[in-house]
Amino acid sequence: MAETATSSSPTTEQARERRALLLVLGICPMMTASDTLARALGLGLVSLLTLTAASLVMAGLGRGMRPGLRFATTVVVVAGTIGCLTLLMNAFAYRLHDSLGIFLPLLAGNVLIVCTAQETATAGAARAALRGAATGGLVVMVLLLLAAARELVGRGSLWHDAGALLGSRAGALETTFFREDLGFLLAMLPPGAFISLGLLAAAWNWLRNRARPVER
Amino acid sequence: MSARHDARRLIPPALVLAIVAAAFAALLTLLADLTRERAATHRESWLTQRLDALVPPSLYDNDMLSDRIEVLAPASLGTTEPVSVYRARRAGRPTAVVLRPVAPDGYAGEIELLVAIAYDGSLLGVQVLSHNETPGLGDAFERREPEWLERFRGRSLEDPPQRRWAVRKDGGEFDQFTGATITARAIVKAVRSTLEFYGRNRDKLFADD
């Protein structure tokens, strides 16, 4: 199967499945930040910016890159971009920077970011940037959905700590629905993140199958 | 055709790779230089807020943030890194210190603390700067039981006596958190050991360097 997928041009169905798989694999290491909306938005935006900038740089380098070195170059570009963003965050949003901690530099090895940036190396600059941004947008959306659910169920709030993490103006968003210790603790723990992702995937599949019943 | 030919074709992309790496290295160095001061200022103002909350303004008239020394005491302060000690003085006389020790044996690694001690060896307050404790259990001191950290205020090595300086489960005076004894134990132990360190080194800590 893998042979046919790489040697002949993949069918759209295969390509779509591959992208979905990449998305899930890429989101998993980011899910630590999906416990509150503020942190999810932070890590999501960093991924979005990295995806867009790295795709653009890779497209700018052109299609002359040989496959073997293209991967190495992609890794350098992605790591460099994240390095720049981390330094900027440390200066302008240090609370968010500290809150995300090790998970910022870890994005440099994220399969979704590296693969997307590498694939766009063969596209034009505009298309590459667009594709990077679209993938990043999807990441932001999934993280925000997960975080909204987890935060609401787990600690009874939305945008907790947003004022400190995202700037004082975002503080107005902070809403508390019930006391934190009445929350469903599991939702805040790491397993809660994976259970939420599973539920989200199930909901997505259910909606898709309802819209387009598959013949069996 | 061959390997040699192939190897030669790798030279241009290898050059691109080298140039990209050099460009990013330059960019990162530049950014690090440009942002260093701003990042440091932010962190300082954040720390100033913490210090102000711990040490009452009536106790000092100096700039604690710059009246700082670093001490190395891995056994007492829980870290092999140098620990910052901020010194409060009023009219030139020492009144209090704030140390930044680490409780190394939290449930999920290190818990960074800020411990303020008055000159006479009684605690002015304890704050947690950073931790990775289990949300909902080990982070009880943050919002669930914020008064837990308050209970350190006014305590010293004589109150409670040495052997009662532990969580209840170990026969001490301090409550533990439901489901997170290890976290409470780690903090109590670190605070006690910081007090002991202060007791042994008080004069040295206030000495001009």
Description of the molecule:
The complex is a heterodimer of chains A (216) and B (209). Helix content of chain A is 72%, strand content 2%. Chain A has 216 residues and is an all-alpha fold. Chain A has one domain. Chain A has a two-stranded antiparallel ribbon with strand order 1-2. In chain A, helix 2 runs antiparallel to helix 7. The longest helix of chain A is centred in the middle third of the chain and has 31 residues. The two termini of chain A are 21 Å apart. Chain B has 209 residues and is of the alpha+beta class. Chain B has two domains: 50 residues; 150 residues, no CATH class. Helices cover 41% and strands 20% of the residues of chain B. Chain B is built from five helices and six strands. The longest helix of chain B has 44 residues. The radius of gyration of chain B is 24 Å and the shape is extended. The model of chain B has no long low-confidence stretch (mean pLDDT 89).
Secondary-structure element series of chain B: HHEHEEEEEHH
What percent of the residues of chain A sit in helical stretches (DSSP H or I)?
A: over 70%
Query: Which residues of chain A sit in consecutive blocks of at least 5 with pLDDT less than 50?
Result: 1-8
- Principal-axis shape of chain B equals extended
Q: How many β-strands of chain A, per DSSP?
A: 2
Describe the global form of chain A.
globular
**Strand order across the biggest sheet of chain A?**
1-2
> Beta-strand level of the residues of chain B, as a percent range?
15-25%
Q: In total, how many beta strands of chain B?
A: 6
Report the sheet with the most strands of chain B, covering strand number, pairing sense and barrel closure: 6 strands, antiparallel
The number of distinct helices of chain B, counting runs of at least 4 residues, comes to 5
Head-to-tail CA distance between termini of chain B: 71 Å
Please give the domain count of chain B. 2
Quaternary class: heterodimer
**What is the first-to-last residue Cα distance of chain A?**
21 Å
Which H/E pattern describes the elements of chain A? HHHHHHHHEHEHH
